[in-house]
Write a structure and sequence with these properties.
Strand order of the largest sheet: 3-2-1-4-5-6-7
CATH architecture of the largest domain: 3-Layer(aba) Sandwich
Number of helices: 21
Helix content: 40-55%
Mean pLDDT: 87
Radius of gyration: 23 Å
Largest sheet: 7 strands, parallel
CATH class of the largest domain: Alpha Beta
CATH topology of the largest domain: Rossmann fold
Strand content: 5-15%
Distance between the termini: 21 Å
Low-confidence stretches: 436-441, 443-471
Structural class: alpha/beta
């Protein structure tokens, strides 16, 4: 175990007595569910008989990307139970909303335990997964160390390692090799990610494609869409989607610059984290009040009226509604150095896309969209002025917006077979269902697990230790 992993292990043990208070405070702010805090301590296991695959999807993006894989797994392995952990309440809510009923019956959700050695051990002892899959890049050293000690096959799914992060790892090559080598299988998002992960020390790396490319279009409540279309009929609509702190003020400033030349303009702001809605609305109202702009907030049950200039849409799971309503959108997290949110979602819904300069989280799809003409960069010394100019250009040239939308949609044609390929790869890690692996079969029935079948890590040969790296 590396020095960094050892320090983390002892540090989390020392912090453990303070974490229940931390969790209660988070619950008071709506960031945890008070009745389910035991799950954060690794408790509340209820392992069913038969085979069980554990998938950890930290937040909303990872959860949405893995939904088609859950469906493919359920269709291919009728005996398999799927344990899905998330780290946020928002992701848990979306999981419940988006799963088809037949798949939902096979899925058990838990909140991932905090990375305390004893809590991680309790979680794994209770669930005894036949394999563990971590989606993208949120990895916890103690949880992985406990999994490896139990010889549970580990997979990093839809893995990404940006060039920026890879450069950082040059300063800690030894630790990087330990981290990347924790996994029996890495399925990278792109060949560039795969190359960087191999250079870091990943042992078995494959690139089947990016699961975000295979996601279906975001859903919509057709009745809600009809109501909003009637409310804003004839008005130009600009959407700032999945915004982060610092971006809303720039969007309001851009709206003020646009309003005179584009009468009736409605700007919709969808904060990435809905709980920020009241604060975003207060900030926007303060900035807009001096110029007489009116504001409404969806989280308060308000609809945009004829005089509404700014609409804060602080609800969960409605981006599909607003992408369908808007004439163009800014994908948030890109005007500030966050790395950008997912541009594939508006592209699938034929919405012209604007992007700030900070898009490293989605470098490959952004490059694809820019090359195809489906997206446009917004950058310059004055971000608000640059944003206003780009919005004005698209709104003033309907043909330009239509061409961008068509180019974006064509550039992200879904990889329909990818979830099935990923499901097949994951099923290879599991024990055979076997004649005894019905509803009464116990944990671990069937053939030996993947790592043992490969003959690389027999009993006593796996190095204890964890992995933690940011993609």
């Amino acid at each position: 175990m590396s020095l960094a992993a050892t320090l983390w292990r002892w540090g989390t043990r020392a912090a453990a007595p303070l974490l229940p208070l931390h969790l209660r405070r988070r619950a008071a702010r709506g960031k945890e569910i008070a009745d389910r805090l035991a799950e954060r301590r690794g408790e509340a296991a209820a392992r069913p008989p038969g085979r069980l695959l554990w998938l950890h999807a930290a937040s909303v993006g990872e959860t949405l990307s893995v939904l088609p894989v859950l469906q493919a797994l359920a269709g291919r392995a009728p005996d398999l139970t799927l344990l899905v952990t998330t780290g946020t309440v928002t992701a848990a809510t979306l999981l419940g909303q988006r799963l088809e009923p037949a798949v939902a019956a096979r899925v058990i959700h838990r909140f991932v335990p905090l990375d305390v050695p004893g809590w991680a051990a309790r979680f794994l002892a209770g669930w005894q997964p036949d394999a563990a899959v971590f989606v993208e890049s949120e990895l916890w050293p103690n949880l992985l160390a406990e999994a490896r000690a139990r010889r549970i096959p580990l997979v990093l799914l839809n893995a990404r390692l940006s060039a920026r992060s890879a450069r950082r790892w040059r300063w800690a090559r030894g630790l990087g090799r330990e981290l990347a080598g924790a996994f029996d299988l890495v399925l990278a998002q792109s060949e560039a990610d795969a190359a960087r992960l191999r250079a870091l020390g990943a042992r078995t790396v494959r690139c089947l494609g990016n699961l975000k490319d295979a996601a279906p279009p975001l859903p919509v409540d057709q009745a809600a869409l009809a109501r909003l279309r009637a409310a804003v009929a004839g008005r130009p609509v600009f959407l700032a989607a999945s915004t982060h702190p610092g971006e809303e003020a720039l969007v309001v400033e851009a709206h003020r610059a646009l309003a005179a030349a584009h009468p009736g303009l409605l700007t919709i702001i969808v904060p990435r984290h809905p709980e920020r809605g009241p604060a975003v609305a207060a900030e926007a109202a303060g900035a807009a009040g001096a110029t007489g702009l009116t504001l409404a907030r969806r989280g308060a049950g308000e609809q945009p009226g004829p005089e509404t200039a700014l609409y804060v849409a602080d609800t969960l799971g409605e981006l599909g509604l607003f992408y369908r309503l808007a004439d163009l959108c800014l994908v948030g997290g890109s005007l500030v150095p966050h790395g950008g949110q997912n541009p594939l979602e508006p592209a699938r819904l034929c919405c012209p896309i604007l992007l700030g300069p900070h898009t490293w989280n989605f470098a490959e799809p952004v490059a694809r969209l820019l090359a195809a003409g489906g997206a446009r960069r917004v950058e310059g010394p004055d971000p608000a002025a640059a944003l206003a100019a780009a919005v004005a250009d698209v709104l003033s040239n309907p043909g330009c917006g239509q061409a961008m939308a068509e180019a974006a949609t064509a550039a992200v044609a879904p990889e329909a077979g990818l979830p099935g390929q990923v499901a097949e790869a994951l099923l290879q890690l599991l024990p055979d269902a076997g004649p005894d692996a019905g509803p009464d079969a116990g944990p671990g029935s069937g053939r030996p697990a993947f790592a043992l079948r490969l003959g690389r890590n027999g009993p006593g040969t796996r190095k204890p230790g964890g992995a933690l790296f940011e993609g």
